[in-house]
Amino acid sequence: MLTRFAPSPTGDLHVGNVRTALVCWMHTRNQNGKFLLRFDDTDLQRSDIKYIDSIMHDLKWIGMDWNLSFKQSERFLRYNEVLLQLMEEGHIYACYETKEELDIKRKLQLKQGLPPVYDRSALLLTEQCKINYEQEGRKPHFRFKLNRDEIVKWNDEVKGEITIATSHISDPIVKREDGNYTYMLPSVIDDIDFDITHVVRGEDHLTNTAVQIQMAQALKAKVPIFAHLSLLHFDDNKISKRTGGLSIKSIREDEIEPMALCSYLAKLGTSDSIEAHIDMQSLIDSFDIKKFSSSSTQFHLDEVHKLNSKILQNMPFEAVKERLTQIDSEFWYFIRNNIEKFSEVAKWWQICKSDIEPVIFDEEFIKIALNTLPKGKCDENTLSEWVKIIKEKIDIKSKALFMQLRLALTGREAGPELAKLLTFIGREKIIERLKMRNHNSAAIA
Fold first, then answer.
1. Integer Cα distance of 387 and 137 in angstroms
2. Is the Cβ–Cβ distance between 278 and 319 less than 8 Å?
């Protein structure tokens, strides 16, 4: 098996792109196949090397790798060669209408209640007409001539049997007036030349697939197996990089762990339950393209955040130690159940080890707490012994007692288990913080 992911380097990757890439990648890795990364940069005006770099960075961050990568802009000679071959065989023809003339034709067809299908008037042009047009300064664009008598059928791995009539599809433009290729023909040529066996993409490509099947047939090539995923929706809108969709850059900046996003996207729209996976291999092992539904799929970012917490709670120290400084395994295993984002580890370490702004409500209570702090090094029994002694000195409810101690020692209203936290703060800093005075509730962090 050989699959490919073919982004256009005209913007940042968004979750819709990555879902497609992830499904492609897991599909082939599940079958011990190969994965190809192709950059569809035939639109030279809009493509940018910075997006190629960012796409590769995003995919690596996700945890994906590839066996081969290339840019379509490196293969124009090959595309020209095939274009000439198809022209000689009558599959591609030159057209000279301007954009304005084509717009007028479409409007007239729609006004008459007809589908806006190109009328193939360019096929009636004489050689002299073409010469005259070119002397006027017109440059041709080129279209692939569809077999409009054919009903294109294929067995889709997600949607089942698909049937598309090409009679209502315009002959697609494969090369523009400016000499740039459109997506259609180069994609087919690459799939043939690189022996792509499986193509996974969004359901918005269904019509393109019918066209590209005919192109492959015109080139007497084997047609790959197709799988069309349902599109992701977010706030009732299709996720798109052009309409401000959720970019992977923004996901990363929101401190989502890669495996939280992968755990969600790999199972979204399938019959499997969405659970936290801490490694890619478990996702690959459980992958089956046939589990994906053809129904519309809703993306919920809050679900990814929930998975993020579970991912962190299950991460062994070995998986995170390179991302931590000074923090040992004992602190990691203590704190990981109390965080939603990885950066919170460092924040709680600073609360334990650095200077903080304690919050003092009742100075009399704090004075008693200071004087009753048990002797010796703090351990996990220190808090219960301390609370018992304080209650012997003052009439106070347990909830208020714990809240005042937590605020005075951490500056926070909530947080990890206080008994264990004291062992990391240490007796010296506990005394130092209890000795601070004249703070109030306005200082709550």
1. 91
2. yes
pLDDT digits (tens, 9 = 90+) for 283-332: 999 999 999 999 888 999 999 999 999 999 999 999 999 999 889 999 99
Pairing mode, strands 173-175 and 141-144? antiparallel
> CA angle 373-377-379, nearest 5°?
85
Q: Regarding beta strands 68-71 and 34-39, do their DSSP bridges make them parallel or antiparallel, or are they unpaired?
A: parallel
25 torsion bin: left (phi>0), alpha (psi -120 to 50), beta (else): alpha
**Using CA atoms, how far apart are residues 290 and 27, in angstroms rounded to an integer?**
10
Our measurement of the distance from residue 103's CA atom to the centroid of its chain's CA atoms, rounded to an integer in Å, reads 36
Distance of alpha carbon 64 from its chain centroid, rounded? Answer: 12
Cα–Cα dist 211/171, whole Å: 9
Give me the DSSP letters along 308-325.
HHHHHHH--HHHHGGG-S
pTM of the model: 0.88
What's the CA gap between 133 and 61, in Å, rounded? Answer: 52
User: Is 284 in contact with 24 (CB distance < 8 Å)?
Assistant: no
According to DSSP, residue 362 is labeled -
Mind listing the pLDDT tens digit for each residue in 231-283?
Answer: 988 865 555 544 445 899 999 999 999 999 999 999 999 989 999 999 999 99
